[in-house]
Amino acid sequence: MLHLVIQRILHKKWMIACLIIGNILLTAIVAAHPLNSASSSQSMLTEEFESAMRENNTYPMMIHTIGRIRKDTGKKAAAEMRKLANNMEETIGLPIAEQFCFRNMIVTTTKSLIAHDGIFAENKLALSSLSDLKDHVKILSGRMYSDKPADDGFVEVIINQSVMVEFDLVVGDEIVFEAVKGKNGKPVKARVVGVFTNLLEEDNYWYHPPTFYSKDLLMDDALFDEMFMSDGAKKNQFDEEFIILPDYKAVTPEKVDSIISTTQYLMREYDDVYRKVETSNYISLLEEFRTKKKQIDVMLTILEVPVILMLLAFIFMISRQMLSLEEGEVAMLKSRGASGFQIFRLYLMQSLVVSGVGMVFGLPLGALITVLLGRADAFLSFSGGRNVELIFTWDAVLYAVVAAIMSVLMTLLPVLKKDKTSIVAVKRRRSRQNKPIWMKLYLDIIITGISLYGYYTFLNGQDELLVRVLSGKAPDPLLFTSAALFILGSALICIRIHRLLLKIIYRSGRQRWKPAAYTSLLQLIRSGNKQVFVMVFLILTVSFGLFYTTIARTIVANSERNVSYIEGADIRLKEYWMNNTRQGPGHYYEPEFAKYGSLDCSGAAKVYLNNKSIFFIDSRRFDTSIMAINTQDFGKAAPLEEGLLPHDYYDYLNVLSRNPEAVLLSSNFKTRYNLKIGDTLTVTINTGIQNGTYTDNFTVYGFFDRWPSYRATKILVGNDNSTSVTDNFMIVANLSEIQSLTGVIPYEVWINMDGETDAFYEFADKLGFKITMLEDRVQKIEKLHDDPLFAGTSGILTMSFITILVICSIGYLMYWSLSIRARQLQFGIFRAMGVTFRQITGMLVIEQTLTGLYCIIAGLISGYIASILFVPMIQIAYQGADNVLDMQLITQPSDVVELVAVIFAVFLICMGVLMRQISSMKISQALKLGED
Hints:
With 932 residues, this protein is of the alpha+beta class. The protein has 28 helices and 24 strands.
C-alpha cells in the first residue's frame, strides 16, 4: 500500500505540493509559538533586570541574611543563617555571582588614645570585618591590615575616606572599644593602618559602596572570627550579615515562580529578633514580568488563532477539491470490493506522509520565524535592534506534532464522507444541488448577531476592559473572538448576497445575454455550492488581511501619537540650580539659558511647571497645576498636532501673549465651575521652599481641551477593581508674570530637535553642564517599538499577513486549476459545438470577475467595518491609561494596494494557467473522458 501511496503522490504532485506548503506553514507557525515565547521571554526578563540596574545604579538581585548575636543569645540563630547563606545556591536554584560576609559590632562609644589638639576624641564607631576585602580595595594611604594582632595587642584596621573625614581619623590613630572585650577580657584596642577605596568602579562586591560603611573600622575577617566567635571568646553584641548576589542572567521564565515562592518563604520564615532575610526589590520585578508575560502570551495566542484556522481551512479546501477529482476512483474501488477501512487507510497514509514532510521542514522554518519576530519593530518591518537569542524547547516538537494531527484530521474529514459512496451515489449527487446547511439554518445571521452582541457588550464595558489592562491582565479573548466571528459571519452573508445578485443579474438580462455571459452566469448559479468554500476563503483572506494591517498600523501610530503628545517636546530637561535660601526665599542661581542658541534646533523654551498650586472659587480651594511659558519660544519648542484644538494652536499662544495677567484654562474649569472668558481667578503658587507661597489674580482669556503634556483626567484602579476618574486642572500663564511674582525659580527647558536628538547629546557633552532630569521623546518612541508586546504584535500580524497572502495565492490558483480539470468534458463539448477559444476565455473572465472581484470588494468592506467596530477596543488593550488622544483608525493605502495587487496578480496567473490548460486540451480526449 505504501507503494500505491507514493505513486498517487507522484501522480498528483502539484496538489500534494500545495498540501505540503500548507503543512509546512501550519507547523512553522504553531511551532514558532513556544519558541518565540521562550526566546522573547528570556530576552525580556534579562532586559528587565538590566534596565533596573541602569535606573537604580545597583545590582538588581540581592539577598541579605542577618544573624544577630546578643551576648547570651542568638548564636544558634546566627549559625542557622550562616548555613542558609552558604547553601543559598541550592536553595534559590541560581548560581551566585558574588557573596561576602559583613560582621559588625554594635556601634558603641570609643575613645581615642592619641590626642588631637590636646583632645582625646570620643566617637560612635563599630569594629567590623568584610570577607575577601583585600581583593577589592585600593589603599590610598598607609597599608592593608594584618591578619594577626600587633605585638602590643592592637588590632589593625582600615577605614574609608568618609570615616576619615567625618571622625577626623588619620593613619596611626589608636582607638579603644570599652564595650568590646577580647578573649583576655580586656577592652579591644584598634590601630588605623590604612585608608581605602574600591579597586574597580564596577564591582559587584561593592553592592553597598565604601561610603555605606560610614561608622566601621574594618579588620581582618578571619581574625574577627578567632577573637569573637571561636571557643573561649567573650560575650559581645554583633551582627553577622551575608550579602548574596545571585546571577540574574541565569534566571529563566521557568524558574520565576520558584524564585518568588522560595524568596517569600525565606522572608516569612526567618523574621524574628535574631534572624532576618531581606531582599532587593526583585520580587516585584519578577511578579511584573510574570504578569506581563502572561498578558503577552495571551495576546499573541489570540492573534495567531485566526491564521492557524485559515491554514487548516486551506488544507481542508485543497483536500476536498483533490478528493472531488478522485470521487469516481473512490467509488470504483468501493464498487470493486474495497472496504471503507482500506480506502480510509490509503488516505491516512498519504496524509501522514504529507504532514511528516511538513514537520521536517516546518520546524526549521518555525525557528526562522522566531528570529524574524524577534527583530520586528513595526508592521512589515524587521529592522529592529533587538537581538533575541533562539532558545529551543521540546514544546516546539510537541506543538508540531499537534499541528500534524490537526492537518491529518482536516485531510481525512472529506474522506469520511466520500469513502461510503458508490458510483450511482456519485452520479446522483452531481445532478443535484442542495442548499448548504449553514444557509438553511441561517448560521450566517446567527454568527453575525453573536459578534455584534459581543461588540455591544464590550462597548458598554470599556471601563471593565480598561481595568483589566491597568491591573496587568490580558484583555478578554472574547473581544478578539467577536471580531473573528463578525468577519466570518460577514463572509457568509456576502455569499448569500452573491447568490441573490447572480439570480438578479441572470434574470434581468436573460433574453439579451450573449452566449458566453449566459453560460457563465448559468454555470455560477448551478455550481454555487462548489464555490462557496473558496469564496468564503477568499473573503476571509482579504478581510483578515485588512483587519490585521489596520490593527498593526493603528496601535503603533496611535501609541506614538500619545507618547509624542504626553512628552510635549523632543527634549525636556532640568539643569542643576544652585540655591541659597538663607539669602531669602527662592534665591536661586539661574543657569545660562543663552547657550541653547548655539544648539542646532527649531526652538528652545523655558517652561515652569508647578503641581502644588491651588485656585479659589467662592472661598473654596481646589488643586491645580500651572505651566508658565514664553509664548513665542514655546510655540517653536512644543508644536501641537493639528486638529486637537477647535482653533489654531498658535492663536491660543497669541491670545495669551496680549496681557501679562492673561491665563488659559483647561476646559474642565468651564464645565465644572462655569468659568468664562473675562472672569478673574485667584491662584496661590507654592514653590515648595520655606516662605515660598505667592497669591495673585489672573484674567481668563481662553480654554483648551488639549495642550502639550496635559492629561485631562487621571484613572485609578481600586483594590476592588473599581475605577475612579479624577479631573486634572491646568492653568497656562505667562512666565514673565509668574517670575515677577515668585522670582526666578527652577524651570524645565523644552527643545524641538525635529525628531533627531543625537545632536543634543553631542551639545551637552561638549558644554558639560549638569542635568538633573532628562526626557527624550525619540528614545521613548524607540523604546515603544522595542516593547515586547508591541514588537510581538507587529511580528505576529506581519507573519499572519504574509501567510494569508501565500495561502490565498496558492489556494485560489489551485482551486481554479482543479476546477478546469473537472470541467474538461464541458469545455470539450463547447469546442466541439464550435465555441471559439476567445469565447471560452470570455466565459472564464466573467466567472473570475463575478467571484474573485466580488470577494475582494466584500472582503475589503467587511474588514473595514470590523476595523471600525473592534480596533478601538483593541487599542485600549495596548495603551490603557496612556490613551490620551482620540484614536485615529489608520489603514495604510500601500498595505491595501499590496494586498489587492497580490490577489490580482494571482488572478492573472490563474487566467494564464487556465488558458494554457484549455488551449492544450484535445477535443477527442475530452469527449472520450465523457464516454468513460
